[in-house]
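>> received
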Amino acid sequence: MKTNYENKRAVCIISGGMDSTLAAYMMKERGYEIIGLHFNYGQRTERKELACFEQICDALEVQERYVLDMDFFKQLGASALTDEKIDVPTGGIEEGIPVTYVPFRNGIFLSMAAAIAEKHAASAITIGVVEEDSSGYPDCRESFIEAMQRAINLGTKEETHITIEMPLVHLKKSQIVQKALQMHVPLELTWSCYQNEEEACGVCDSCRLRLRGFEQAGVKDPIPYTV
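>> returned
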């Protein structure tokens, strides 16, 4: 039987967004040494998200950082985030699976995180998925993450045992904002917009969810918006 690693290390997937940033702060509060992991996958706001990742890691005093380039996502296309021929929806949050869904993105991200976790003998991977108040992405579901955890532990060394932590999975965006404020998370360093890098558009799905969360929490979002 596999045994837990003694090292209290966590590979935290940090996109530069509010959810993954809060998840990393929660793991640090629990006493984990944070290993930061970020993906460049040809997304429209790649440069901005990378800059946010570096600033967030600085704020968390993360020493070990990985930035992985995964250009094949852009070659694959099939998502408004990576294919410039597909417009980012701005008419309101869509029903069903939106065109901003990147096929199996979290599955691939978690696989790479598992390799890094095994290298560092980390006992946890953290991902900031939100099931109830997300955009309807199938790879944000708790059941999927749990299945990935089982697969990862089947496909790694006998002594490896990795837990995938998803501390926000059942929270609303307003609760995420409130929790982040309570923990003094620097939300001004985070970015959620799907299409702009200087000022958030305020009308894409991600901006709408974020703004609604701040509104329901009764506070002002500290990042700039065009509208």
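>> The chain has one domain: 9-217.
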